[in-house]
Amino acid sequence: MVDVPAPEPAAGEVLVCVRAVAICASDIEIYENGCASGGIYPPEPMSQGHEFSGEIVALGECADAPAVGTRVAVEPSWHCGRCNMCREGLCNLCRNIVFPSYPPRDGAMAEYIACPDYSVAALPDNVSDIEGALTEPLGVGVHAVRLAQLSGNEKVAVLGAGMVGISTMLAAQVQGVDAFYVAEPIPERREFARQMGARVVGESHQDLIDAGIEPRVVFECSGDNAAFAQSLALVRPNGHVIVVGIPEPPEICFDCGRARRNQISITFSRRSLNTLETAVELVASGQVGLGAIPVRTFSLDEAPEAFALAAQGPGPELRLIVIP
Ligand SMILES: [Zn+2]
Ligand SMILES: [Zn+2]
Predict the structure, then answer these.
(1) I need a labelling partner for 302 at 20 to 30 A (CA). Which of 3, 64, 193, 218 fits?
(2) Using one digit for the tens of pLDDT, what is the confidence trace for 40-50?
(3) Based on the number of CB atoms within 10 Å of its own CB, is 107 exposed (0-12), middle (13-18) or buried (19 or more)?
(4) Domains of the chain, with CATH numbers?
């Protein structure tokens, strides 16, 4: 914990007073290893946190944003708008991307953070600060579901019922899917997945394979490479595996022969793409009940405790949240 001057919003930026910021597994990776995915080391100590909500307290020059005093959620994938990926509309693949909490950019585990004006979305009164912070992982689920092009009446498996797995399931429910098959080792998380509508819940992907379910789409949200490899045995022929979890280690060994014979499509999902407004709208309209997500809150002074707890591995809560 250090005292630093509050950032000044540059032209086109807004200054956000952070009201809730969740700890994501990717934050814990840097916290534990000192190194982010992709082998990037921060040049100096830096703050984490990219799932957050807050209140606009100042506008930089020419900022095109809601008024000071507006509560907002933030899409933390800040793109240049000029590179070829941005021009193709694939801003999540921007070649000059800036992501708060990814080295070297400080994250939102702070009282204030400056954000680009285009990255904020106003929160209606019926969306809480914590729900606002959780619209970020919900957006990750919305993006993964868009990649899957679900038709509604089909079987979908979700491997890993953490925040991203549950977000993906909730986003798929909005598309009309109700046949969910979930694998999750932590009993409380399995129970929560059941409450949220999962039809069959196993401890591991093997349970779903043994049950002979053959979903058309498998969302790999656990980051467990064995789960990814076995998703090729789980998915039905001509099926689609979407990898949402961050593989660790990044090299995965899997049976290409089976994938080829069964003509399996494999798509890796990258963060989210223009999903913030959709996520906020899904929560505000009651289509997605983020308020039910089990969380535990900590004050800013308790943030070190929250990180230490999160580093022990996943527990019953889907997110530990710091309230600065
Ligand atoms: Zn995250
Ligand atoms: Zn770009």
Answers:
(1) 193
(2) 888 888 999 99
(3) buried
(4) 13-122+294-323 (3.90.180.10), 140-268 (3.40.50.720)
